[in-house]
Amino acid sequence: MKRFLLLIYASAAMSADFGAALVFPKRTENQVFRDRVKANWLPDGKTFWYRLQIAPEKAEYILINATTGIRKAAPSLKELGLPEKEAVNTSAMQIELRRTRHTGESSGFKFINKLDEDVNLFWINEAGEHQRYGSIKAESEREQHSFEGHVWLITSHTGEYLAIVEAEAMVKTLIIDGKGLTKAKEQLKKPKQAGKSPDGLFSVTSQADAVSKREVTLVDASPKRGLQPKTVVIDYIKPGDPLPKPQLVIAQADGKKIRVPRDLYENPFNTEGRIDVTWSQDSREFYFDYNQRGHQLYRILATNAKTGEVRVVVEETSKTFIDYTKKTWRHWLHSRDELIWMSERDGWCHLWLYDIKTGKPKQQITKGIWPVREVLKVDEEKREIWFFASGLRTVEDPYHLHLCRVNFDGSSFIQLTSGDGNHHVEFSPKNDFFIDTWSRADHPPVIELRRSSDGSLVCELEKADASALLNVGWTMPERFVAKGRDGKTDIHGVIIKPSTFDAAKKYPIVEDIYAGPHGAFAPKDFDRQLRMHQIAELGFIVVKLDGMGTNHRSKAFHDVCWKNLKDAGFSDRKLWIKEAAKKRPWMDLNRVGIYGGSAGGQNAMRALLDHHDFYKVAVADCGCHDNRMDKIWWNEQWMGWPVDESYVKSSNKEDAYKLQGHLLLIVGELDTNVDPASTMQVVAALQKAGKSFDFMPIASTGHGAAETPYGSKLRMEFLVRHLRP
Predict the structure, then answer these.
(1) Would you identify the CATH topology of the domain 2-29+469-723?
(2) pTM (2 decimals)?
């Protein structure tokens, strides 16, 4: 009888936890104030105003004199001496909240987030309830399955409404770019770059023999209209597939055509079959990129327009890989026959000044044991570069972005931001001031007005108020640092506790993993981190960190992933969690779970294949479980070409027989990002090996199926069942 009562008590407690987790997004929505400034500059370029939300339904208007820092506040623009019409479309609360009223044909969205912060995605159902579908990462894309008539809400990471969109019969591509009331607009395809020279005497075309393109067929087994299944066929090139080899042809004014010799660009990584060119101002030559398949050789080539002779302007080589998607930025200075180029040749991502004529570097512009992260602008007149860098201070998180400026010759380097946090900036119209917003995972935003000349502070504009968020049970993440596998390198991450945290209790640990080498993923900005907090509300300690093999540190740190995606930084992750638990006795190292989606799905399953001594439970959503099955551009970037044994060694399908622990596989039936057959082949391998596991395909759903209401609930139930028995 006593045990029966204990079971009833435990069941009631878990039910309460589920309730708290499910209402957590709504409970914490719109609870952070004074956290953002969108400047509206007046014509003088020295004065601006902004609307400031100071309570859930209360705002005021602020007028700032940028020269003096004098601040005036009033409940309306009129009282600031400004016309009220200026305020149109500035309020997030003016967005018309609609709800889903009908369900039509299967459809969806492709969201392109051009903001430098994550945004959250919610479906507004027929009852007007907001059902969370995860986040759209900063500067990334996401496909979302939907149905015609379904209404979606996009919010900022602190809960501010950004956009309301309704699915139409055709799939829509929307850009989230921070412009206008909805902050979203349809993406227009750019016309192909013309190959005509400035003087009109030459033109360049690229020709390529057709190669067969792989197609993937998806089955919508339960269409909303009609009984019979429907098929969707998409082009989907996979690692090792044949690629076109473009041939450049120069057409001269007299009709003569010259085939440009392919000796220096014979095996390109090129899925489109065409090459875009950039012309010199005098039409003497044109330039084009050659990214050799395998990503270990990258060239910028110059071609003489009269003779077709090809020469090398820049050449990068690597024994591992060149990060061509993030670190091949360049800026042409044609008037001086110079080129600014980004390279990791000295072990860190830096900028170099090249002589175009000689094809030799004139100057390494930036230097140090820190990486350039993004170039914002190049001032050719002053010969200055404005850029973001990280890792500049040894006492600070090495991922924090700081605004910097440097001359073309490498002199007068200056760090223009100072707060201990991750920085985002917005310049005034004349670029003489900038608004600096900085925060950390454990520090709400601070917003400052600074002078562009030297970064000096004009005034503090706002300090975000997160007290209401804390009062409704949201817990501040704890940042933690521990040494990695080499005993030297710092590994950074966060620890999140439930709102009912009791230091006298023992809590299972759940890791949110995404070890994609294209980025780094532990939070650096202040954010509600809804998914992790929802999991924590179930009675877990949730952790997220970046092990070796991820991006934005040294080249050596990044290279760990090469031909080795199964590594996923697990050697660093286990050490980090164990070190955190040494002084946190409430972290139960005997009950550790893990979950992730896409590359994170591959990682989560790998935890139970190679590291089941530590991880006991895993939820793997839409995983690219075998890199031979996934899209070409992402997988060949890290695993190389040709497809070799390294692909086999990193395959979850090939190693399925090694499974130990509790595994839940989730996949969207209509996933166009990662071929869902990748998950089905893992299922087949597990069945052949006689392994016990759970599997849930989610009907009529695309990539990120675990972020649907059903998938999310399933993930929570699975973690609770096996980590809180």
Answers:
(1) Rossmann fold (3.40.50)
(2) 0.88
